[in-house]
Structures are given as C-alpha cells and as structure tokens.
Amino acid sequence: AKAFKRAGFFVIGIPHHQETLDQAKQSGAIDVGSLDLRAVFDADFIFICTPISQIISELKLLTPHLKPGAIVTDVGSTKSEIVSKADKLMPKGTFFVGGHPMAGKEKVKFEAAEADLFSGKTYILTQTSKTSKKALEALKTIVAQLNCNILILDPKTHDTVVAGISHVPLMLSVALVNSVADSSHVENMKK
User: How far apart are CA 121 and CA 102, in angstroms?
Assistant: First the structure.
C-alpha cells in the first residue's frame, strides 16, 4: 500500500485488524480503508496480500462482486495451484494474473512496512494460455510504478525457480547442520 500510495495511486486498504487499519490511515499509507471486503468491489486492480492458504478463499469472496474489467492478482510465493484455481473462479470479463514480488521481510506488522520495499527487486507476473494479454500489460504498467524489475514466467517455471532459490538452500543448510551435529555426536562417543 505504501509503495502504490507513493507512486500516486488511490489506495483502498482492507486489513484483518482494526489496529492495522487505524495505523494505515494515520500514516497516510491508504486513502480509504475498511475491514469489509465490499470496499474494493468497484476497484480496477485488486492485490490479494494474504498468506498463501487464504488467497483462494479471499478470491472466492471477491469474484461474485467484481466489476467488469477488474484485474485481480496475488503476492503468493507459489503460483501453479493458485493460478489454476483462480482461472476457474474468475467471472467472464474479469481477469486474474498471478504475481510474486521477490521482496519481503520477516516482520509482518504494519510498523515494518516500507514504501521502497520493491524498489530494484524482481516482481514476477505469471502468464498462461488463459491469461489476458491486455490484463497482463495493464498489471505490468501498474507494477512498474514500484520501480521494480518485472519478469514474466509461466506458473510451473515460477514454482521451480522459487523452489530452487528458497527451498534448496534451506535443505542444504539443514543437511549441513545435521552433518555437523552427527560428526560432533560421533566424536563425543569416542571419548
């Protein structure tokens, strides 16, 4: 919200907690806010910024109320399942384009929000045979305002690349820790 607000967009925020809504309003991160999803039913672009497990349920709440031409995206770190389900849920004349900004922080509270979080980072948008080229181009134009590098990938390639970037290093770290722990254990047994 802060990044889009700084770029000059009219931003409607729909957090889950009143405290977050109050902070966002006070800081000027949003123009309008509500705890009620109906506040975005007339929006041109909707970004679903929830944990992965909630993206499809939020989309299900939105889809019956989207205005014609609305473009919905997400910021989840997995794409294949989300894009596949979203494609089936979207009413005719509305569009879904999966998104994943390769930027983030460990902290999720409003106090940790930064307007320049995406600046210079890669922002992945997904494209399938069902993706509207017009919707993809419109979303690219909007996301480009965040001063990020846009990369277009199909959902499967996205998931493979992200798994290689984030999961493989984690698995290697765990294996290294286990290896060191095992060798320390063996050395202690010799004594």
Answer: 6
